[in-house]
Amino acid sequence: MTYPTQPEASHFVNGRYVEDTDGTPMDVIYPATGEVVARLHEATPAIIDQAIESARAAQADWAALSGTERGRVLRRAADLMRERNHELSVLETMDTGKPYQETSVADATSGADALEYFGGLAGSLTGEHIPLPGGDWAYTIREALGVCVGIGAWNYPTQIACWKAAPALACGNAMIFKPSETTPLCALKVAEILIEAGLPAGLFNVVQGAGAVGAPLTTDPRVDKVSLTGSVPTGRKVYAAAAEGIKHVTMELGGKSPLIVFDDADIEDAVGGAILGNFYSSGQICSNGTRVFVQAGIKEAFLKRLTERLSTAVIGDPLDEATNFGPMVSEAQLGIALNYVAAGQEEGARLVTGGTRIDKPGFWMTPAVFADVTDDMAIAREEIFGPVLSVLDFTDEDEVIARANDTEYGLAAGVFTSDLKRGHRVIGRLEAGTCYLNSYNDAPVEMPFGGVKASGVGRENSKAAIEHYSQLKSIYVRMGAVEAPF
Ligand code: NDP
C-alpha cells in the first residue's frame, strides 16, 4: 500500500491526537478488498468528557475574535486541503471505497469550498439596527450557539465534517465531530489541517465510535446543538434526545427522491442525470433520484440508452483513475442492496441489467436497473442506499406530481424537460427541499441543501447555514423617559 492509513491515534482532542485503548477496538476495512487497513478504539466516557470540556474552554475566546480573524483560519485550512487533495482523496477512497476519480473532485475539494466560503462570510456576520417610534431603537447581535456536536454518515466523511465544521466555526462555535464508525479516518485529517491552519486547540475535536458514543454527546447538557447526517430512524432518535435538552438541531436525513423525465427531454441529459443520481458513489447518496418516472413516449429509448451507457462503466481498482464505479462501503450495505434486488424481482419488477454480486474479495455488485416498477413495491418506497435504479411509467403531469409526492421523504427532486415553463411549474409543486432542473445532484456550497418532511430539518451550505449555527440577541434601547402606570 502506498499510503499509510493507520492514524497516529483514534481521537483528536484539544489540538492533538489522543488514544485510550480501554475503548472497544474498531477495525477499518478497505471496501475494495475487505482488508483491515487500520485499527482504532471507540471513545471511552473519559475521552468524550475531555472533548466536551476542551470545546467549552476554547469556545468563548474564539467567539470573541473578529469574524475576519476566524475566517482567515478557515481560508488557510481550505488552501491546505487543496494542496493535499491527492493524499486526502486516496484516504477517502481507502475509507469509503469510492473511486479516486470521484474522491479527487468531490470530497476534500468540496470540504475546501465550505471552509473557503464560510471563511469569507465570517467577517460579515452582523446584526441589524431597527429604528422605532419616538427615537427609540433596537439592535440585534448574532451570537454563537456554543458547543456543537456533528455526527456523520459514512458516505462522505470529509465533506460532512467540513460542511458542519465550517459554518459552526465561522459563527464562533466549537465542534465535536463523531464520524461514522465505518469511515473514521478522514475527519482526523480535517482536524489536523484546521490546527495547522491556526485553529486554537479544542475547537474541533474528533471522537470515534458507534451510536453508543453519539448518544451521550446528544444528551450532554454542555452541548448546545446537534447536527446529524444519517438515516431517518437515527434522526428520530437523535432529534428526540436533543429535544429533551431543548437543543438546536440540523437533521440531514434520507430520501427516496423522484427524478421525472418528460418525453420532450434531451435524452442524453436525462440519462446522464439518472446515472449521476443513482450510480455515483455506487448509489450511496442521500439525495439520489431513485424513483425515475419516465413518460410513456420516451421510456424504451431511455432504457436503451441507460443500459448502453451503463455497460461502459469501469468497475475495478478504485485507486485506478480510470475506474468510475467502486464497491459498496461494507458487507452489510451490500447485503441490503442485494436483498432489495431480490425483493424487486419477487414483487414482479423487470430487472433490466445488473444487480448481481461480483465474485471477488470486497463488497462489489453491478449497477442495477429495474423497469415496470409500481408505486407500492418496496424498491419504490424504501431508501436502498445502493446502486438500484427504478423506472416507473407515467402519462401526465398531474399524475406524476401526485405520485412523486406520495412518500414520507422530501429531500430532493429532479425534472428533465425542454419546456422550461413546465419545468418550473412542476418543481413548484414537488415536496422536496433541494431540486434540480435538467440536472441532478449538484451541491455547490453557495446553494442551500436539505430536506422537507421526514428528510430533515434545517439547511447546510449557503448563507442559510448561518441561521442554524448562530442565534440572535435583541436589544431594545429607550431614548426617552420610561412611562410606568404607577
Ligand atoms: P445512520 O443513521 O445509521 O448513522 C448516522 C450516524 O449516526 C452514524 O455516525 C451513527 O453511528 C450515528 N448514530 C447512530 N445511532 C445514534 C444515536 N442513537 N445517537 C447518536 N448518533 C447515532 O446512517 P448511515 O451512516 O448508515 O448513513 C446512511 C444514511 O444517511 C442514509 O439514510 C442517507 O440517506 C443518510 N444521509 C443523509 C444525507 C443528507 O445530507 N441528507 C447525506 C448522507 C447520508 P454509527 O454508524 O457509527 O453507529
Automatic annotation (TrEMBL):
<feature type="active site" description="Charge relay system">
    <location>
        <position position="460"/>
    </location>
</feature>
<comment type="subunit">
    <text>Dimer of dimers.</text>
</comment>
<keyword id="KW-0479">Metal-binding</keyword>
<feature type="binding site">
    <location>
        <position position="453"/>
    </location>
    <ligand>
        <name>K(+) 2</name>
    </ligand>
</feature>
<dbReference type="InterPro" id="IPR015590">
    <property type="entry name" value="Aldehyde_DH_dom"/>
</dbReference>
<dbReference type="InterPro" id="IPR016161">
    <property type="entry name" value="Ald_DH/histidinol_DH"/>
</dbReference>
<comment type="pathway">
    <text>Amine and polyamine biosynthesis; betaine biosynthesis via choline pathway; betaine from betaine aldehyde: step 1/1.</text>
</comment>
<dbReference type="InterPro" id="IPR011264">
    <property type="entry name" value="BADH"/>
</dbReference>
<feature type="active site" description="Charge relay system">
    <location>
        <position position="164"/>
    </location>
</feature>
<feature type="binding site">
    <location>
        <begin position="152"/>
        <end position="154"/>
    </location>
    <ligand>
        <name>NAD(+)</name>
    </ligand>
</feature>
<dbReference type="GO" id="GO:0019285">
    <property type="term" value="P:glycine betaine biosynthetic process from choline"/>
</dbReference>
<dbReference type="Pfam" id="PF00171">
    <property type="entry name" value="Aldedh"/>
</dbReference>
<feature type="active site" description="Proton acceptor">
    <location>
        <position position="252"/>
    </location>
</feature>
<comment type="similarity">
    <text>Belongs to the aldehyde dehydrogenase family.</text>
</comment>
<feature type="binding site" description="covalent">
    <location>
        <position position="286"/>
    </location>
    <ligand>
        <name>NAD(+)</name>
    </ligand>
</feature>
<feature type="domain" description="Aldehyde dehydrogenase">
    <location>
        <begin position="18"/>
        <end position="475"/>
    </location>
</feature>
<keyword id="KW-0520">NAD</keyword>
<dbReference type="InterPro" id="IPR016162">
    <property type="entry name" value="Ald_DH_N"/>
</dbReference>
<feature type="active site" description="Nucleophile">
    <location>
        <position position="286"/>
    </location>
</feature>
<dbReference type="InterPro" id="IPR016163">
    <property type="entry name" value="Ald_DH_C"/>
</dbReference>
<feature type="binding site">
    <location>
        <position position="254"/>
    </location>
    <ligand>
        <name>NAD(+)</name>
    </ligand>
</feature>
<dbReference type="InterPro" id="IPR016160">
    <property type="entry name" value="Ald_DH_CS_CYS"/>
</dbReference>
<keyword id="KW-0521">NADP</keyword>
<feature type="binding site">
    <location>
        <position position="246"/>
    </location>
    <ligand>
        <name>K(+) 2</name>
    </ligand>
</feature>
<feature type="binding site">
    <location>
        <position position="456"/>
    </location>
    <ligand>
        <name>K(+) 2</name>
    </ligand>
</feature>
<dbReference type="InterPro" id="IPR029510">
    <property type="entry name" value="Ald_DH_CS_GLU"/>
</dbReference>
<comment type="function">
    <text>Involved in the biosynthesis of the osmoprotectant glycine betaine. Catalyzes the irreversible oxidation of betaine aldehyde to the corresponding acid.</text>
</comment>
<dbReference type="GO" id="GO:0008802">
    <property type="term" value="F:betaine-aldehyde dehydrogenase (NAD+) activity"/>
</dbReference>
<protein>
    <recommendedName>
        <fullName>Betaine aldehyde dehydrogenase</fullName>
        <ecNumber>1.2.1.8</ecNumber>
    </recommendedName>
</protein>
<feature type="binding site">
    <location>
        <begin position="178"/>
        <end position="181"/>
    </location>
    <ligand>
        <name>NAD(+)</name>
    </ligand>
</feature>
<feature type="active site">
    <location>
        <position position="252"/>
    </location>
</feature>
<feature type="binding site">
    <location>
        <position position="95"/>
    </location>
    <ligand>
        <name>K(+) 1</name>
    </ligand>
</feature>
<feature type="modified residue" description="Cysteine sulfenic acid (-SOH)">
    <location>
        <position position="286"/>
    </location>
</feature>
<feature type="binding site">
    <location>
        <position position="383"/>
    </location>
    <ligand>
        <name>NAD(+)</name>
    </ligand>
</feature>
<dbReference type="GO" id="GO:0046872">
    <property type="term" value="F:metal ion binding"/>
</dbReference>
<feature type="binding site">
    <location>
        <position position="29"/>
    </location>
    <ligand>
        <name>K(+) 1</name>
    </ligand>
</feature>
<keyword id="KW-0558">Oxidation</keyword>
<keyword id="KW-0560">Oxidoreductase</keyword>
<keyword id="KW-0630">Potassium</keyword>
